[in-house]
Automatic annotation (TrEMBL):
Pfam families: Ribosomal_L30. This is Large ribosomal subunit protein uL30. InterPro entries: Ribo_uL30_ferredoxin-like_sf, Ribosomal_uL30_bac-type, Ribosomal_uL30_ferredoxin-like. Gene3D superfamilies: Ribosomal protein L30, ferredoxin-like fold domain. Residues 5-55 form the Large ribosomal subunit protein uL30-like ferredoxin-like fold domain. GO terms for cellular component: cytosolic large ribosomal subunit. SUPFAM superfamilies: Ribosomal protein L30p/L7e (SSF55129). Coiled coil: none annotated. Keywords: Ribonucleoprotein, Ribosomal protein.
Length: 61
């Protein structure tokens, strides 16, 4: 398993349900094209699963 996940927002949060908007905020994403590096753990995997239609994910070491 990778040590970190690079999460990049690809679509807007406008028009999304509040849970998806809050999940993006919890990941630290504020605008399209922004990327964050998060530890690869079950909590962050769950966040990514919730907003999988709005982000892309890369596993990095």
């Amino acid at each position: 398993m990778a040590k970190n996940l690079k999460v990049t927002q690809k679509k807007s949060r406008i028009g999304e349900k509040p849970k998806a908007r809050e999940t993006l905020r919890s990941l630290g994403l504020k605008k399209i094209g922004q990327s964050v590096i998060r530890p690869d753990n079950p909590q962050n995997r769950g966040y990514v699963q919730t907003v999988r239609h709005l982000v892309t994910v890369e596993e990095i070491d």
